[in-house]
Amino acid sequence: MELNNSGSRNSRTSRQSLAEVLQAHEEQLELEQKSKLKKAQTLSQKKIRQQQIQTLKEQSLREILGFFTNQIDVKRFLKNKKKLLSSDDTEESEKYQDEFLNPNEFEEMKHIYEDCNIGDLVIVFPNPDDEDAPAGEVTFLEAEKVFDKFITVITDEVSKSYLKKERDSFLLSFLTLGDYVKPQKKTKKQEDKKQDDKKQNKDHNENQNQQSNNKDGHKEEKQDKERKNENDNHKNLSEDAKLLPHQKDQPSRINSQQSQHTESKTAEETSYEKYQKFMKLYEVQLKQEEEQYQEQRNVAKQVQVEQFSEVKFSQQFYRRWQKQKKQEDIIIDPLKELLKIDLNNIKQFKNVSKQLSKGGYLVKRMNDEVDYDWICQNSPPKDFLTLVRITVINKLSRNAFVHCRQFVSTTGKHIFVVVKSHQQVITRQAQKMKITKQIEMGFADLFSLEPVDNEFRPLRLKSYVRLIDDDLRNILAQEEYGQPEPEFDYLNCQDVENYCLKLYIKVRQWKGKDLKYNVVKKQREVDKILKEVVTDLNIDQSHEKVELIDDIPITDEEWQVYYLYLESILCFGKKIQWAKEQKMKEVIENIAFLYKLVFLKALGDANQIWYAENQSFWREFNGEKQIIFNLWGRLNITPVAPYTEYFKSSGSAGSSLWRKYEINENKHRSEFINMEKIKITNSIVLKHINILKMLQMQYLFAYFPVHDLHQLKGQGELKKQFFEPLKKNGFIIEKESSEGEKYLRDLFKELADEAESTDFDSESLEKESGFNPRVPWFVPIDSIRDYFGEKIALYFDFLSYYAKQLWYMAVISIITQGIMSSSSLELRQTAIIGFSIIIIIWSTFFMEFWKREQVYFSVRFGQQNFEADEAERPAFEGDFIRSVLNDDLNEEFYSPLKRKMKQLLALSISAIIIGCVIGCVIGINILKNTLIEQKLDQTLSNTIPSILQAVSINFFNFIYNKVGQTFNVLENHKILSTYENSLVAKFTIFRFVNNFIQFFITSFLSSYFVQLKLCQVNLEIQNDCFQILSNQMTTIFLTNIISLQIPKLVAPHIKAFITNLLTKKDEKLVEHPFNLIDEEIERQLKLDPYQTNEEVDGSVNDYMELAIQFSYLSLFGLAFPACYILAFVQNVVKLQVDKFNFFNYSRRPFPQGASSIGNWLVIFEMISFLAIFTNAGLIVFTSEIIKENQVQVFSTLLIVFLTLKYIIRFLVPDEPAEALVLNRRHEFVVEKAVKGFQTESNARYLIQKINRQIGGPREVISSEEEN
């Protein structure tokens, strides 16, 4: 029993242990299954994520590809763009649609032209579908090079991954272009073969005639079988095409029977070959669809039930396909098949070549023998030039968010792309570029415009106003608590100046206590206005809480005029405060500018009234037209507001921070003038497209900014006609002026007469720059800078300064020339020595005062910290190596040794040309001596050689211009500035030798070449070098006036006449709202570009001309003092001719910054220094004044002249006191008024960024940052 019990217990325990084991095993299996499920889930989630990432990449790539192939979802793109560039205008206008624009395009353009600006920049492409367009082929490698080097610019604006997508999309789009078909040329062998074939065909036909009828029947049976096979093949292709709609996942596959036969071949096929096979089947289906479409169209025409448009089938097919894309039953997706091509396998594209032009994107439709229209097919591009144009436009639209509009020229030769930037784009780019912007004077330094005494202390703080006795205090207190006097109705005062003029009659009678009582009373009223001004503009006046020490009193007459000033401040101040109480938004946004105008108006009117009542000849002669002055008037400095780096301001005070300008004929105001917009838009374009290289490779025809007819020539009415059709068709929505706008414009009209010239666009630049006989060197530098930019303005400033300095020397030179021509020998010698000293002093003062002038120029226009960009030359070509500086593995490098060898070659060629110059000089002297020996008239014998000398100088200058530019290109400079410096050095050295070799030989080497008789005047005067130099300089200066300035006036007229004569235009243009605008833009293309060559602007030639003239005056002006009056006339004429050409015959140059004239300053300094040696040499060796100890006297004169030059340089500082004062004042104002405001703005921006990064609430991000 015990055994049985123990056995049963053992069996139970074994059963229990087995059950536990089974249970544990099941649990383990469950755990394993769960782990497998988790692994499967994680794997599936990874796959899903990978698929999602791949889908997003494919969608992004597909979107870019759709842009490049002209199959874009415009509505979606514009919707995204509108989110980024949100507009204040929330009103929706009716959709406009015609044969030119669809509703989406119209919606984009609706707000672009509200600023009444026809465009910022114009990019001109050659029309690839024109008859004269060059034909050719483009390989896959060439397409890669075009995108990488010409179209793409690597910057921080676009990520590298996005650029990779754009590159892939461009190359895939390239593969969809039409294949290039080489034109077949008939050779002699081919013609001989054709003749042999004809003979064989004749023999074969004769043999066929001899054959029996049975053989003919057998042959007919074979032909029938061949026809059946062809029909079967065609049916198979059509069946394969029909199978395409049923293959959603794998649309590139064909039916199973065909795949089995071609299985071995497809294993060897590349991805591009598969795509080509798919497209063949796709094209078959297109043909079938087109045939069905044509049949339906013919039936409909016969029945006259349905009307079909004349649009091609391909357009309607793509429109229908785009509508069906979003449906689930997508039939065909060529883009999906295109994305399957492996671009990394470059070998498969070895034999791929596409057509360069004539892809049929534009079709020329002839209406009659003369009239024609260009019709856009709006289909995917089929030639490379069209693809490049579409790519450039879409990169600018997608990446840069600028607006692009295209049109074809009237000749059909070019396609214009007009580029305009939205205001929000300009603002953002200005922040990124960290451009220097001017602060509004009324915001930054308003109280510097109030009247001050001789110690620069404000009159409102003087003891006369602030410290009053008990009697006056009691009178004021009684008036304050008593019954108030009836107040003058300032709000309804329309003519404040006339009111103050009448008031001045009464004020002049006030003396002593009466005057002080009225001034103190009026000051207290004005203080209430000023208190609100201080609050509105957040002005710190803590420095005024001190007592004035040694306060010097002023006259009663000054206090009387100051009272008029206070009355004007009170009148306009109450008007502004009333508008502020009415919450007029427009007035509040311009409140700082308004107060600046009020201060200037009040001070100007008060002084004018005083001068009108106290006018005298002596005051007119001395220019004493003011009795009270502001801070700038006491310093004799034009008031200039400070500049600082631009940042986006906010709030009511921020709206008045930056200076605003009048930008069009409708009196609209903006923080950015049109010149700045062009500068910023150009930087945007250059950051996305390598325009310079595209111009060099002729993918572009031209690239230039657009002239503004209103600002340049005052043709506002003509410009308004451009925009009338746009208003009629809804492109510009005219808004009724609000009460605030009307009130603001009324205030501007009252305050405009004392404003700065650039505050209001009252006169055109052409009218403002008109010739002033009293000041013939006058140039409105501020207006020229606001239109052309700082670099052109600095050139005109230098030319004006040069002409002004010549005026003083012209007066002295006439007196000296008279003494040298008619006086005794001793007086003549004294005049020569004295005038040489004057030349040294003048040339030194000329350079020293110009240094001061350009420093003041840089301060006035915020160019102190300007640095020119080191742009790379588009024509530079080198070998790719690793950069030692930054480890760039693909840096282009050109050997300096090769460049030196080419420079040596250029030097040797230049030496040969200089040898020819010397030969001409000797030949002309031999001719002169021959004419003298033949006893020809003395005038002719000296004039003819001088004219020949001037002609030879211009001839060799022309020759070396071509040679020098050629060698400069061969030197292959990488940086544009080094290229320009090298070109300037070549031109300067050669022209210096070419112009002055004759003068140096005649002046200093005539004694070594006695046989040449270089200084022979006639048979009687055998040695008068001064007379020879005088004759030569007279002829050269007169010929320069004729040969350099007159062609600049005549040549543009002749060129325009010939161009219009040879150009064939489409006279009957299709009516469209942009017709007038397009005609004006096309007219500006015909203007001459302001360029020396394709890479250097025209300032090189202009400064070179002035440098050569300065050399004549400084080096050899002693021989002919009257040359200074000729130079003055020449420069005045040049100034007027340059203005005329810039305003009428030149394209608008790209505005560029500048703080100095650059290397030209060094060249002028060298000429001024060399003048010491030539003037000393002329006195000692040429004038025959010194006949003994010439070397010792020459050395002594050098020491005297050098000492005199460096004493002047020591006494005249490089920086004028005005510039130092302005700099210090600007630093103080920026630190006080702007830095705190900027810090607050930056802090707000950083907080928003932090909230975005840590996933903070969306509400924290303000609307200002979103905009």
TrEMBL record:
Which residues does UniProt call coiled coil? 272-306
Native species: Paramecium octaurelia
Name this polypeptide is given: Anoctamin transmembrane domain-containing protein
Q: What is its main location?
A: membrane
Q: Which UniProt keywords apply?
A: Coiled coil, Membrane, Transmembrane, Transmembrane helix
One GO term of the cellular component aspect? membrane
**Cell compartments where the protein resides:** Membrane
Residues that span the membrane, as ranges = 831-850, 904-927, 989-1010, 1112-1133, 1157-1181, 1193-1212
Q: Where is this region: Disordered?
A: 183-271
Which InterPro entries does the UniProt entry name for this protein? Answer: Anoctamin (IPR007632), Anoctamin_TM (IPR049452)
The residue ranges flagged as biased composition, category Polar residues, are: 252-261
One molecular function GO term is:
chloride channel activity
Classify the protein's membrane topology as the record does.
Answer: Multi-pass membrane protein
Judging by the UniProt lineage, the source's domain of life is: Eukaryota
Domain Anoctamin transmembrane as annotated: residue spans: 784-1220
Q: Residue span of the signal peptide, if any?
A: none
Basic and acidic residues composition bias: residue spans: 189-206, 215-251, 262-271
